[in-house]
Design goal:
With about 70 residues, the chain is α/β, with parallel strands linked by helices. About 25% of the residues lie in helices and about 15% in strands. It has one domain: Rossmann fold.
């Protein structure tokens, strides 16, 4: 599992890709990294829970604007 400490070791040019299991990545830590522009972006094929709720931060944030990292 990649927790907050692990994710904070990523460089600002990092692109995180998770196509395995959502629980392998600390989602709140990843959201914090993306919002603070500490990584370049993330590509996520899995979420916890699935399906992703309509009010999820992953759906409602305008990623890639105001300097936030890109999310696919």
């Amino acid at each position: 599992m990649a927790g907050e400490k692990d994710l904070n070791m990523l460089s600002p040019t990092s692109l995180l890709v998770n196509t395995s299991r959502a629980a392998l990545i600390d989602e709140m830590a990843l959201i914090s990294l993306r919002q603070s522009r500490k990584i370049r972006g993330a590509a996520l094929d899995v979420h916890e829970p699935e399906p992703l709720p309509q009010d999820s931060v992953c759906r409602t944030t305008r990623w890639g604007t105001d300097g936030s990292s890109e999310v696919i």
